Amino acid sequence: MQDHIDCTDIQSEIESLCGALNGDIGELNWAPVRYIHRTLSREELAGLYQAAQVALVTPLRDGVSLVAKEFVAAQNPDAPGVLVLSKFTGDAEQMPAALAVNPYDKESMAYVMHRALTMPLAERQERHRALMETISRYDAHWLCDRFLRALSRPDTAQQPKIKNLLSKVLRHRETDSGRF
């Protein structure tokens, strides 16, 4: 029994599936999937976000991912794309204006993707407005404050060290509040 997943096999399968999908339903001037297997510059990534009609964010493991927020921030508010999030991402709870989907349910995925691709402009604009309000409210300062408050609550033998560190960070933050 293999305990690890061979990334080369996964990459080959993804490339094969993307090629088959693009070959089956793509057009000469349009491909449903843009598969890029290389690092992109910030400018290239922002351009792809802006050009995308839909962003589908379905991580297998959810860490601190900014993909959903970056997609929303890059959109043109006059003609925004649609954000689709896995119900299992941390962002799904924080971003209720996104379309939520169970990525393990193929029928649900198909329905939500169709809904995203055919969503009327007015609804896209309203969802984008709500998502922008959310990402403006829950910014890096909010995350830092929440993390520091959580640090101040532990009941462990490390509590004196943590409180000392916390007070240093808070003092630094008060003197340097213009920067993060």
Automatic annotation (TrEMBL):
It comes from the Bacteria. Pfam families: Glyco_transf_20. InterPro entries: Glyco_trans_20 (IPR001830). Signal peptide: none annotated. PANTHER family: BCDNA.GH08860, TREHALOSE-6-PHOSPHATE SYNTHASE. Belongs to the glycosyltransferase 20 family. This is Trehalose 6-phosphate synthase. It comes from Pigmentiphaga daeguensis.
